[in-house]
Automatic annotation (TrEMBL):
<keyword id="KW-0812">Transmembrane</keyword>
<feature type="domain" description="PTS EIIC type-3">
    <location>
        <begin position="3"/>
        <end position="381"/>
    </location>
</feature>
<feature type="transmembrane region" description="Helical">
    <location>
        <begin position="315"/>
        <end position="340"/>
    </location>
</feature>
<keyword id="KW-0762">Sugar transport</keyword>
<feature type="transmembrane region" description="Helical">
    <location>
        <begin position="288"/>
        <end position="309"/>
    </location>
</feature>
<dbReference type="InterPro" id="IPR035919">
    <property type="entry name" value="EAL_sf"/>
</dbReference>
<keyword id="KW-1003">Cell membrane</keyword>
<dbReference type="Pfam" id="PF02378">
    <property type="entry name" value="PTS_EIIC"/>
</dbReference>
<dbReference type="Pfam" id="PF00563">
    <property type="entry name" value="EAL"/>
</dbReference>
<dbReference type="InterPro" id="IPR050706">
    <property type="entry name" value="Cyclic-di-GMP_PDE-like"/>
</dbReference>
<feature type="domain" description="EAL">
    <location>
        <begin position="426"/>
        <end position="674"/>
    </location>
</feature>
<feature type="transmembrane region" description="Helical">
    <location>
        <begin position="126"/>
        <end position="148"/>
    </location>
</feature>
<dbReference type="InterPro" id="IPR004501">
    <property type="entry name" value="PTS_EIIC_3"/>
</dbReference>
<keyword id="KW-1133">Transmembrane helix</keyword>
<feature type="transmembrane region" description="Helical">
    <location>
        <begin position="256"/>
        <end position="276"/>
    </location>
</feature>
<feature type="transmembrane region" description="Helical">
    <location>
        <begin position="168"/>
        <end position="198"/>
    </location>
</feature>
<feature type="transmembrane region" description="Helical">
    <location>
        <begin position="361"/>
        <end position="381"/>
    </location>
</feature>
Length: 675
């Protein structure tokens, strides 16, 4: 029982892994392409078989050319879709990942062959690389981004979009060249597995060779590779045109009695799906694929259900054609099924092809019997798949985890238009703000932080101010607009660099204060910014603190923790600012390497109510037990100062002592004694 539970857990983890869900997402995106491909071939063959058109007609040539292009480009479409969706879900640029997959596929798959100065296209064997190459290239791109240093492109005036693409140059090159080393190894291993572990003896009977061919082809299809094409490239298969029974070719036997509804006997699967619960994923896909499976097109079920890389459905996928092969072979060998020498297309629907091959009704009756048996084989596995694989839930979970934008795809046109209008207004406001800043002057003013017991200055908080042309000074009212438009990077860089300049000037006159600066929460998730801060303040150990609002800790906690620890290694502490106004989480703080916290004035104002006083007191005690250094912000009255002093808080900051002061005044500030 324990082993079964473990196997179920492993299977669920595999089925809902980021890689498998990305591949399913990629192939679902290709459904319109599959349907278009099937329709083109279906229309062409039906029209010719029923003499609606002839090979000399213009429409015949048009459809034939279109279907040929569609079939030839099929592996290319798979590469693009897999590269795009897998790269996106791995955190890479989806477009760059798709381009990388396409380029490497074209080189390694022999899809493009250069000979005598010209390129020719050969898609027959390329499908073997259509999933493998973009999968490898996407993961290599992710590894490159993770381990290759990116500081070379850390330039302050570049847009984030341009910087993101520049940062992918080295990972792109790493992935591109690494495949030249990795793919030959994989090809050698696969060649050994296929050729030596699955031998095909040309001296064996036609039936045995056909059976071996069936197993190998289905194995390829399970891994998303066009089994028939790859088999024809790797193995000699002249036996397929030979008679498996006198007057009945192996190909006709295989198409008529084994692949009933296409690879894996999918007519039986469709019948089984009708007995599943209404609205199940498997039932819906089976309904969509029914008209195509009647003509033996299998891609929709293979990739959208999926059979592809679905270990739960691998068993019936192999078992059903084996069952059909053995039963049909036994029935015909016993003389129970009459047959005749006819040539049929692989697209001929089941029952019709049985009627054409058989000399009586026994052949189509055998096909019906096989369909019923196939449905019975598929049903328990389909039902278990339906119960175990809630792919919609898995996709929603993945989407939420990766913060993918697809969740917004269902917005109505009216809402879209309204958003466009609001965006236009917002952009105009942003433009006004940027113009105002460019026409004014930014400055850092410093508000003293006072040791309550001694009255000495413990440090200063650098606060951003905007000095306009008329000399008036305002606070950073524009920050909310910049945050909304994700345009705070240039302000953050200015604040950091200005704080460095101020410390240098103060150092020249022998003044060495500790200052804290406020930056956008995104700074703690930006590796290049963290490196910049560490390098810039290397000559000012223990003189800088980074203040960050607590909401920034709610996401990417591991990365934030790593960067806080790096700052601490470089003698730069991190302070949690404005505690009590946002997403306060004491349990989260206990797990983060932060030992400094500031209690916001809004939190202090709640002390006017009894419940607020108790809360403020209890939070202060918790911080003391956790070893936090606490600064009480917004102290404006002596009563407020007496209250926080009674709680054992060591440092206070507020207008009671001084407002934010210009740099020169802050340097000479002496706090007045307060009783």
């Amino acid at each position: 029982m324990l082993a079964i539970k473990h196997i179920n857990g492993v299977f669920t983890q595999f089925a809902h892994s980021r890689y498998i869900l990305s591949l399913r997402e990629a192939f679902i995106a290709l459904l319109p392409y599959f349907v278009c491909s099937a329709l083109a071939i279906l229309v062409l063959n039906v029209a010719v078989n029923f003499s609606f058109i002839t090979s000399a007609d213009f429409i015949y040539k048009t459809i034939q050319q279109s279907s040929l292009v569609i079939l030839t480009l099929f592996p290319v479409m798979v590469v693009i879709s897999v590269g795009y969706h897998l790269s996106k879900n791995l955190g890479n640029s989806a477009v760059v990942g798709s381009i990388l997959g396409l380029v490497t596929f074209s080189i390694h798959s022999d899809f493009l062959i250069f000979s005598d100065g010209i390129f020719t296209v050969d898609g027959t064997g390329a499908s073997a690389y259509a999933v493998l190459v973009p999968s490898l290239s996407s993961y290599l791109l992710m590894l490159g981004r993770r381990f290759i240093p990116m500081s070379f492109f850390d330039l302050p005036l570049l847009s984030e979009f341009l910087k993101e693409k520049l940062l992918l140059i080295l990972p792109f090159a790493f992935a591109f060249f690494a495949l030249f080393l990795i793919l030959p190894i994989i090809e050698s291993v696969l060649h050994f597995v296929v050729v030596y572990l699955v031998p095909v003896d040309s001296q064996s009977s036609v039936a045995l060779q056909l059976f071996n061919r069936m197993l190998i082809i289905h194995g390829f299809w399970f891994f998303g590779v066009h089994g028939d094409n790859v088999y024809s490239m790797m193995f000699e298969q002249t036996f397929i045109s030979k008679d498996i029974f006198p007057g009945l070719s192996a190909q006709t036997f295989y198409d008529t009695f084994v692949l009933i509804g296409g690879t894996g006997g999918f007519i039986g699967l469709i019948v089984a799906s009708f007995f599943l619960a209404k609205g199940s994923h498997e039932k819906n896909i089976a309904r969509i694929s029914l008209p195509f499976s009647l003509f033996n097109f299998c891609e929709i079920i293979l990739f959208a259900l999926p059979i592809f890389l679905n270990p739960l459905l691998l068993i019936p996928f192999i078992l059903v054609p084996c069952f059909n092969f053995v039963v049909s072979y036994a029935m015909i060998s016993a003389g129970a099924v009459g047959y005749q020498d006819v040539s049929i297309s692989w697209m001929t629907p089941t029952i019709i092809n049985g009627s054409m091959v058989g000399t009586d009704l026994v052949a189509p009756i055998l096909q019906v019997f096989l369909i019923i048996c196939n449905a019975c084989i598929y049903y328990p596995f389909l039902r278990l798949s339906s119960e175990r694989n809630n792919y919609q839930l898995a996709f929603n979970k993945l989407s939420s985890k990766l913060n993918m934008s697809e969740r917004f795809a269902a917005k109505s046109e009216q809402r879209f238009i309204e958003q466009q209008r609001q965006s236009s207004v917002s952009s105009a406001h942003l433009t006004h703000v940027l113009n105002t800043i460019s026409q004014s002057r930014l400055a850092l003013y410093y508000q003293p932080q006072i040791d309550i017991q001694t009255g000495h200055v413990n440090g200063y908080e650098g606060l951003l101010r905007l000095i306009k042309r008329d000399g008036s000074i305002t606070g950073p009212y524009f920050l909310d607009t910049l945050v909304a438009h994700k345009q705070t990077d240039i302000i953050d860089r200015w604040v950091i660099e200005q704080a460095h300049r101020d410390l240098m000037q103060w150092s020249n006159v022998g003044f060495k204060p500790t200052i804290s600066i406020n930056v956008n929460p995104d700074v703690l998730t930006n590796k290049s910014m963290i490196n910049k801060i560490c390098d810039l303040f290397i000559d000012f150990p223990d003189q800088l603190k980074i203040e960050i609002v607590e909401s920034s800790y709610l996401t990417q906690q591991t990365l934030v923790t790593e960067h806080i620890e790096k700052l601490r290694e470089n003698n730069i502490e991190t302070v949690l600012d404005d505690f009590g106004t946002g997403y306060s989480s004491l349990s989260m703080l206990a797990n983060l390497p932060v030992k400094h916290v500031k209690l916001d004035r809004q939190f202090l104002l709640q002390c006017e109510q009894p419940a607020g006083r108790v809360l403020y007191q209890q939070v202060t005690q918790i911080f003391a037990k956790l070893g936090f250094s606490v600064v009480a912000e917004g102290i404006e009255t002596e009563a407020e100062l007496a209250w926080v002093k009674s709680l054992g808080i060591e440092t206070a900051q507020g207008w009671l002592y001084a407002p934010a002061l210009p740099k020169n005044e802050a340097q000479h500030f002496v706090p007045k004694p307060i009783e």
